[in-house]
Specification:
Strand content: 15-25%
Number of strands: 7
CATH architecture: 3-Layer(aba) Sandwich
CATH class: Alpha Beta
Structural class: alpha/beta
Strand order of the largest sheet: 5-4-1-6-7
Helix content: 25-40%
Low-confidence stretches: none
Number of domains: 1
Radius of gyration: 17 Å
């Protein structure tokens, strides 16, 4: 709870909400069936879609490529664009960066896209709540004014009950692994001057 920002209500009918950037790392493509499989971070896309449908959003920017090294696969943003068009979202609204492999590249490629189109760098940034502290800093370093929206928070919305303190949980260990990885990532980004 000390790491993740406090969840805030999503904007509704807010005329200042024009560009929504959602970071990848939420899905994978099953080429044989042509289907998209969403993981727990799929909530990123759901929260972004709620913002798009309840505000005068001009563009939804999906930033996410492939982190695969040994195999060739399409960037995540490319197949997510197809998925969203299939659900009825206008293709003209969706802008993709399917080359980014990490958060730093998400920010740099998004900045280049905004510069090329002459857009003002004011965005709603949607990513997992545990990923927001690093993401906000990296995007601000690239000149963006960021309104963050955290998705799929790690901590529960309901208060703890006695069994939470008594029953062992493997999922808690997985959560700590995720947080340690994020903290190491933030340290590396700080050493490289990305923050």
């Amino acid at each position: 709870m000390a790491w993740e920002p406090i969840p805030m209500a999503l904007p509704v009918n807010d005329s200042t909400v024009n560009k929504v950037v959602v970071l990848g790392g939420m899905s994978s493509e099953h080429r044989a069936s042509g289907r998209v499989r969403f993981g727990s971070s799929g909530d990123r896309l759901m929260q972004a879609l709620l913002i798009v449908h309840n505000n005068p959003v001009e563009h939804l920017i999906i930033s996410g490529g492939s982190a695969a090294i040994l195999i060739e696969e399409r960037g995540e943003a490319a197949f997510l664009q197809e998925f969203l068009v299939g659900t009825g979202l206008y293709q003209e609204m969706i802008v993709v960066d399917s080359l980014s492999r990490n958060t730093f590249e998400n920010a740099v490629n998004t900045r280049q896209l905004f510069d090329a189109k002459g857009w003002t760098k004011e965005i709603i940034l949607v990513t997992s709540a545990w990923h927001l502290p690093r993401s906000i800093k990296v995007f601000e370093q690239q000149g963006f004014v960021v309104r963050p929206v955290g998705a799929d928070p790690l901590y529960p919305f309901s208060p703890a009950v006695p069994s939470d303190y008594l029953m062992p949980s493997a999922s808690v260990l997985a959560t700590w692994e995720l947080l340690f990885k994020e903290w190491v990532g933030k340290g590396v980004y700080w050493m490289r001057g990305y923050l």
